[in-house]
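Help wanted!
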Amino acid sequence: MGLHATPYKGLLGWIDARMPSLMQAYRTHMSEYYAPKNFNFWYFFGSFALMVLVIQIVSGILLAMRYKPDSQLAFWSVESIMREVSGGWFIRYMHSTGASFFFIAVYMHMFRGLLYGSYRKPRELVWIFGSLIFLCLMAESFFGYLLPWGQMSFWGAQVIINLFSSIPHIGDWISTLIRGDYVVGDATLNRFFSLHVVAVPLVLLVLVVAHIFALHDVGSNNPDGIEIKDRTDTQGRPLDGIPFHPYYTVHDLYGLGFFFLAYCAVLFFAPEVGGVFLEGNNFIPADPLQTPNHIAPLWYFTPYYSILRATTAEFVVWLAISAVVLGAMIFLRVRQQWLRITVAALVVFAVALLAVPGVRLDPKLWGVVLMALSVLSFAALPWLDQSPVKSIRYRPGWHRIVIGVFVVAFFVLGYLGMNPPTPGRTLVAQVCAALYFSFFFLMPWWSRMGSFKPVPERVHYAAH
Amino acid sequence: MTAVAQTGEGPVEPGQIDRERRAAIITASAVGGVGCVAVAVPMVASLWPSEREKAAGGPVQVDISSIDPGQMKIVEWRGKPVWILHRTPEMLASLKEDHELLTDPESRRTGFPTPEWALKDPALRSIKPDYFVAIGICTHLGCSPNGPFPANENPQLGAFPGFVCPCHGSTFDVAGRVFKNKPASDNLEIPPYEFLSDTRLLIGEHKKSA
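Answered by r_m:
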């Protein structure tokens, strides 16, 4: 009759005989997905991020029932949600707190990748999808932030869109296309609403599915950085693996309890977090004629913003010197003639655009380039990391210091980005930017240096 | 019946129910369920009318001194048209004549119930005979009927004054009672209202016992 044979009974059996893909998916991704049994604290954040995605979508749907994407009405519709709609304040704070917690979870999730080499072969594609998700998340929060139409919303959008106008020749055209008008206005608000509510969430959902599928196809990494599929039992199941359901579903639910504790503590008692999650200036309706004294992006953008601001004319000189040094190092590393010629040509090209009067680009444009590079550098990690072992546990001890320096530089850049610049702070930002980029672009050299410890055959696991 | 393992006795044989695990699952699910309900309540509550919408539903005061006999004033209450018709003696007389032609002359149907205080005289359906107050929405599918037409001015009403709905042709007399054999089966709805004075109506509330 065309029905599939099924081991399940009742309603489930009826469905499975007609659509076996459902239970097949459950088996592939949950009950028969063997994940390493030595997952630690750092491995919670992927499922936390997924939970926050669900929270953002549900709270977003409810907000969109009351929000009005019109420049005259938007600000007041948000105030109406806060004051007049039953539970409206709760839904709004769910969404704003969720946005920040999304980035907390995603940064922790990425840091895990850094610690244990999760982006290494064969998981480069998982990492690429993850980088695309990161970019989409930044776009999503940028579009969403304009919607309340406060002073910070308006001027933040103004600045970021003007970044595009610094691109030579086509910049103004691109900026006008993004805005839908010659200035940030009603047209911009309406299209950002459409992008924030429909376009980017759809892309995000597709990318998250791709990210998880790409991971499940090769299997998860673990804190010891060894491949658990190398040692399997007679039925092909990894000796160090446990089925995701029920072990990690329950484990992640337990972790979610703590996550919700933190999330709810912020939501109910300090949703603004002193102006970090919800900025004071955004409680003033947008005024196109008057910029507030202090403009800063949301905290999760501040490291990259800091790098943008630190790129001054003097810094560009140092960039030119760095380009020559890095070029020389690559030149000495590669052997093929054609590669060496390409590297030399690129260095000449870069130095021309950086330092040669008459040809060189504005520091403003180099700031934009460096900001973009600072975000995109993460994506290059699978190819920058040349260490013979994946996990920090078996690398030379001083590699931890290198990662620590990077983390400190990242935090300092973030802190500086929240505050107005001074000459002293700009210098610090430049030093941190130099450390930030050195971490990535010198990685092919430093990741190979030092004495590495032997990697174990089986994972380190203590029952608890 | 499979054997049930006692708690605290260590690993469970296959086929035995693990009591400890079962207790843990039930407790965790209960607490988690409380959390889910706690979150769901404000989210579902937000779907209901907000304070602004509730405030917009408040009562409306109307000055009726300027309505001439035979004329009708229409005011908005809760987004709906409310008719205030100053009935003439001829109109009042017609209400005694059309009893056999009406679907529900005593206003007994419950789809659009008529309040008791408006049924002291079922042929009038109002507090005072001179002023007829009703929600001007046809009880069929919601269009607002045209009118008031005096007697012998509209072929669909014939010798009776009243209202005609343009959408599907239902007709009503000047007490809002629907004529027989029409798409609508219910008389027009009467909103809560009361007289604040001889010249002022309050539409949306009826507190007085009279």
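OP: Thanks! One thing I noticed: The interface with chain A takes residues 28, 32, 35, 41-43, 45-48, 50-52 of chain B (CB under 8 Å).
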